[in-house]
Amino acid sequence: MDSALLLGFTGLSVGALYFLLASGLSLVFGLMHVLSFAHGAYLSVCAYAAWAILDAWGTEGRTGWELVIACVLATVVGGVIAFLTELLLLRPLYGRDSLDQLLVTLGLGFVIVATLRGIWGPEERQVSLPEWVKETTALGGANIPNDRFIIIGAAILVFVLLQLILRKTRHGTIVRAGVENRDMVRALGIDVRHSFTLVFTLGGMAAGLAGALGAMYLRAVQPGIGDHFILFAFIVLIVGGLGSLSGALVAAVIVGLVQQFANFYIGSGAGDVITVALMAVMLLVRPQGLFGRTERVA
User: Fold this and answer.
1) pLDDT value at position 244?
2) How do the residues of the chain divide into helix, strand and coil, expressed in percent and rounded to 5?
3) Taking all residues of the chain, what is their mean pLDDT, rounded to a whole number?
4) What is the model's pTM?
5) What DSSP designation does 139 have?
6) Domain coordinates of the chain in residue numbers?
7) Which of 130, 143, 157, 239 could anchor a disulfide with 136, C-beta 3.0 to 4.6 Å?
8) CA 107 distance to own-chain centroid
9) Torsion on CA atoms 24, 25, 26, 27, rounded to nearest 10
10) Which is nearest to 30 in space by CA: 181, 187, 183, 168?
């Protein structure tokens, strides 16, 4: 029972990281029809940003606020990078073949990772965390690492905030309408370019938070830290349904739990194989994903 509970919380925390990446990707694709391969690199940059802040803080007098500050600043960094990407690289390509946009984000991701490797080298760098984060909490006979609760709570908070933005703001209404029928929104005379910028920036901010939390979860950073997460974020995107925020959340939970339980009870790597197979089955049986086209952002 204790092993299952620990695996469950670990699976939920891994799924939470996938959701943070997939939520931005889902909205970006739903509104802009762009699959951004740069979001994994955003995660890597922001993981290094969090590491640098925590490393510079030192180990004396730790209260835990330094971790909060690192997460906030990593989120801001992710948003700024995404904003500049949309403004300088993607906006000039609107109206052209979507392959051009895909290749630009893919190339940007390679450049960012190569830059990180050139500055800090390929080796891992350990993340200095407050002691209470590395400690455990007894729950149901299992000792759950405290970072699991932080990651899961952050993902829930992001989901709620995104829902509020989408449902309670004017830009959110435009985004939801644009995901359902972008041509209709344009026919009404609404300029969706500002919504493109908002959505891409929000996606970058979610990736930035995922970078800080991923560094905390792995206890280390290295240039390719985003590669693993982006792969499974795309699986979550396909399983949940392109453009569906709720679908991304449900699929992330499924993928995270399946990975952890399969790796433990079947063998190392089995979870990865099963999740890829799950994606393949979904594409064959229900190509639109679990939530399909009827609920693309909610």
Assistant:
1) 84
2) 75, 5, 20
3) 87
4) 0.91
5) E
6) 17-225
7) 143
8) 19
9) 50
10) 181
